Amino acid sequence: MAKSALHLARMSYQPKMPASLRGAVKVVEGAATESVSDREEIAAFFPHTYGLPLVSFLPGSEMKEYPAANVGVILSGGQAPGGHNVIAGLFDEMKALNAESRLFGFLMGPEGLIEHKYRELTAEVIDEYRNTGGFDMIGSGRTKLDKPEQFEAGLEILRELEIKALVIIGGDDSNTNACILAEYYASIGAGIQVIGCPKTIDGDLKNAQIEASFGFDTAAKVYSELIGNIQRDCNSARKYWHFIKLMGRSASHITLECALQTHPNICIISEEVEANNYFLDDVVTYIAETVVRRSEAGMDFGTVLIPEGLIEFLPAMRRLIKELNEFLSQNDAEFKLIKRSAQRVYITNKLSEENAALYRSLPADVAQQLIADRDPHGNVQVSLIATEKLLADMTAQKLAEWTEEGRFHGKFSTLTHFFGYEGRCAMPSNFDADYCYCLGRAAAILIAAGKTGYMASVKNLADPISEWAAGGVPMTMMMNMERRSGKEKPVIRKALVEMEGEPYRALREMRREWALSTEYVYPGPIQFFGPEAVSDSPTITLQLERTGR
Question: Checking phi first, is residue 134 left (phi over 0); if not, alpha (psi -120 to 50) or beta?
């Protein structure tokens, strides 16, 4: 591949590791674990992999000899900065344990395992991708591994390649599937270990044992740079309100972290909206009131940060979407006969009084999107809604009403943005490069120790790397039962922004001051070289969470 000067410099970067991952490693088992809830149900689903102990690594006294092992690796789901370093760390530790071990990458995600598409990952291949962004070494995909026939198809190629362990690098859904796969192979005595690694820029795969998912640090810093650039432009031109939507459909971690890094005038947190049972009009009114206050202070400009999944956290919108899904799925044939120009009136007349009133209040394009864009299951595709434009338009409408009433005398011009793909494949920060490399080496040690059904773990991430602690966490420990596709299923619990957590507390304490401020923070681009305080700093979220522990 063609290489920039920065790429060449990054290839030579040596990720830092704690003492427990350098040289000989002692594997220490703790007490048996239990799932976060629904313990009887989870135990029944996973009789062979439930109740496993936590595993920690300590510096060992002597290097052990391990037999050569062939290992497979899969990148599953959306891209996240640092994935290549997980593979590099896995490869390096495998070779350190036995130089004859081999690593095979399955192409384009779980589909590669099912369809037997792979490539051997040699030192020559690995070295081209060290410390780089993207998943292009082997590609990624969203095929779910959750059916016995898929497991059996995968078992054929695993046996053909004499692979003894499979590492699945993914988010909560992918690691849920990894846990199910580990249980299946254990139940039939296949002799195949399955290890997971925590990946997602959304940051919603976290708990007491997994302090952060990889990629979150880099993505948040990329978005914060862009937000900072916009805020500097905002402070220079002083004539636009910028509505900025950020990744995070299921949780608002990215929006919260970016707010802490950049100090916007308004930051909406989905979990807060849900906790307070806010209506869409409540959110719009809050934004409009801040616009008025800034205008009265001579500032007809500002920034608003919005999480991607906001709409689904509005209780009233959730009820509307649920009724729309049910009605459209049951009356699809009739609905298709209605002319597009008459669809809104038709739907309004079919909804309950409360939902009809809310539906009428929505801008025409959003109302149409709610009934026109549906997934193969007939459900509304909420993630496609341009929430940033919706809020900008509804705020403009409210301010126009207030202007007629004499409550607003300023100007309100808007620009909208959505930052998503910009952060998924960025060159990983030093933090993510180091963290991912350690996760890969931890995965290899878990394999050497004969573990299955575990997720590689590295803790103490807000501390100096010398104090990081590596080990493994049973995936069943993170599970609960949730309703998916009409059935109760075991899944790894998503982590939402905690209303009592230190990061949210920090936002809550500062947001009133930020609302009337022009003292924005401009983080600038990610720094790979220089003082550790600049180049190796963890997210503000991690730093604040450490103070709360």
Answer: left
- Give CA–CA dist 547/501, Å, rounded: 10
Q: Is position 108 annotated in a ligand binding site?
A: no
- Gap between the Cα atoms of 370 and 528, Å rounded: 43
Q: What are the pLDDT digits (tens) for 83-102?
A: 999 999 999 999 999 999 99
Distances (CA, A) of 367 to 20, 111, 214, 284, 380: 55, 36, 36, 17, 11
- Position 378 scores a pLDDT of 57
**CA-to-CA distance for 323 and 331, rounded, in angstroms?**
12
The pLDDT score that the predictor gives to residue 374 is 67
Q: Kindly list the structural domains of the chain, giving each domain's residue range(s) and its CATH number in brackets, ordered by start.
A: 21-215+428-492 (3.40.50.450), 219-315+378-423+501-548 (3.40.50.460)
111 labelled as ligand-binding? Answer: no
Catalytic residues: 202
Confidence at residue 375, expressed as pLDDT on a 0 to 100 scale: 61
Has this prediction a pTM greater than 0.90? yes
Asked whether residue 201 is marked as a ligand-binding residue, the answer is yes
Sign of CA dihedral 502, 505, 511, 517: negative
Closest CA to 36 of 484, 461, 482: 482
Give the torsion sign (CA, 403, 406, 408, 411): positive
* Pair 88, 126: CB distance under 8 Å: yes
